[in-house]
Design a protein that fits this description.
Layout: E1 3-5, E2 10-19, H1 25-35, E3 45-48, E4 54-64, E5 71-78, H2 86-93, E6 98-104, H3 110-126, E7 136-141, H4 151-159, E8 167-169, H5 178-209
Parallel strand pairs: 2-5, 2-6, 6-7, 7-8
Antiparallel strand pairs: 1-2, 3-4, 4-5
Helix pairs in contact: 2-3
This protein binds guanosine-5'-triphosphate (GTP) and magnesium ion.
Length: about 210
């Protein structure tokens, strides 16, 4: 959950990149680390196997000044996509303010995307949360490959029966759509923070006048 340090005038948000194995979660963070000026980003920490599969998580801290008078820190994490690492995914998801679901657009990966989305929902429930009330976006990655599902099909697969979320096309290995995805999730996270903050203020005012 977001953390406000009034003394240092800092707000921290946690964004978790979730999704099917080999979907491109780590590639998103690597690209951001590559293109962001070093003044606004920290080091990229990657805890991977020798085959570059995420073993525990990747971590990239970024900062901006989107809320007047405050430094906003966005802590970006990825989870390991391989099914056996479910316990790790659950731990990394703790306290997430927003989720980027990285879907693999290849037709062969549709079951894997659907399984991973169900796993995300279940892990949010284990934290007493729901996807519907957690800011999230769907990134449709690997749009450069030949055998990909149409955007409309993936939108139906991922958004069906739920509160709709943005579906953003990407080719993370080229960096296409990576910054746009980050911008979208950051805006949603900030919007929810401001809404909750105002809600707390108005509730406090109501309690004071009672
Ligand atoms: N063609 C293509 N390959 C991509 C794209 N994005 C990532 N890849 C490749 O897909 C493979 C897996 O990418 P990762 O970023 O490691 O995937 P991941 O989701 O972090 O995988 P896990 O950590 O094992 O869950 C790598 O070889 C990437 O270079 C893309 O948009 N297009
Ligand atoms: Mg990874």
């Amino acid at each position: 959950m977001s953390f406000v340090n009034f003394e240092k005038k800092e707000i921290s948000f946690k964004v978790v990149y979730y999704g099917a194995p080999l979907g491109g979660k780590t590639t998103n963070l690597s690209h951001l680390h590559e293109v962001m000026p070093s003044s606004v980003r920290g080091d990229l920490t990657m805890l991977s196997t020798q085959q570059d599969r995420t073993l525990y998580f990747d971590f990239l801290p970024l900062q901006s000044t989107v809320i007047k008078g405050f430094i906003s820190r966005f802590q970006l994490y990825t989870v390991p996509g391989q099914p056996i690492y479910d316990r790790t995914r659950r731990i990394v998801l703790t306290g997430a303010d927003g989720v980027v679901f990285v879907a693999d657009s290849q037709w062969t990966q549709m079951t894997s995307n659907a399984d991973s989305l169900e796993n995300l929902k279940a892990n949010l429930v284990s934290h007493g949360r729901a996807l519907e009330t957690t800011p999230h976006v769907f990134q449709l990655n690997k749009r450069d490959l030949p055998d990909v599902a149409p955007v409309s099909y993936m939108d139906f697969l991922l958004n069906r029966g739920r509160v709709r979320a943005d579906c953003m096309e990407a080719v993370a290995s080229r960096g296409d759509g990576v910054a746009q995805t980050l911008n979208t999730i950051c805006k949603l996270v900030l919007a929810q923070f401001i809404e909750e903050h105002n809600m707390k203020v108005s509730m406090a005012a109501r309690a004071a006048s009672a």
